[in-house]
Fold this sequence. Notes:
Blueprint: H1 10-21, H2 30-45, H3 49-55, H4 58-86, H5 115-121, H6 165-176, H7 191-195, H8 203-217, H9 232-243, H10 249-264, H11 272-283
Helix pairs in contact: 4-8, 6-8, 8-9, 10-11
Amino acid sequence: MPLRWTSSNLLVLHSRHFGRTDSPIENYPADDCQEHRVFMELVVSYPGLLDCLINGKEEDIIHVGELLGKGASGARGDDTKTLKSAILKWLVPRGQAVIPPLSQNIKSDREFNHEITSALLCPTGLDWSNADGETAVCGDQWPMFLYAGYIYDPENPWTGLLRSEILIFGFKHIFTSPSSVDKETKATCSGNAYLHGMRSVTKGSLAYIAMQVWFSLSSSSVFSHTDTVMDSKNFYHSILDLLEDPDESEEVVDLMMWWMRFICNISKNKKRAALRELVTASVT
């Protein structure tokens, strides 16, 4: 039976008391608040998980954590493996060749070692064609590939942000299917997203796709959260922090609606009010 929040749920009853006697979750450090939101989304998305955590033995809870970690790590590994070669087809318009060619299996010629990948990874505000010498790039210096048409507007940084073609291809490749990249999206979300009950594009999924594309364009051969060169952890969290910033909620709602219309092929007029309600609920 799907998990439902009710007034008699033990965790809900406890949280009512917790809310009266302890500081609101918003008063905790940002990292704690983010982890709390992730946990709440997890228990809602997986029926029965909360009951297992509440009533299970210590060894059962530890085992659940191990399984979750194994699944997440396995999915990330599969995605980095398939995107490594798939992304090469998205670097130039269809019918054109990448010159000089890039290896599908070895990434040492990517990142700032190739004109195309270096232009996509070039931080906004920096003209790569006129770059001189070595420049250290941090994870919170966002690259051009995040923007539609790979164009950054310094007067309005939200223009085209997280709406680039390469992000769309990456999202469809992972959450729909690799073959869907070259096909018109059907009327409803399908593929991996549908199989796992993903009803809408989420902030976490956008940050994840951005990170995967970023890693695929890099010359790093092994993904690591502690990689100080790629600074992947900082990159991922800098995007997620923006999408979860209450001051940016209006822009985020518009962004999520754009993705929902694009990925799920929902027209601007069809069920617009219901779509905005769904997206707004997921953002706030």
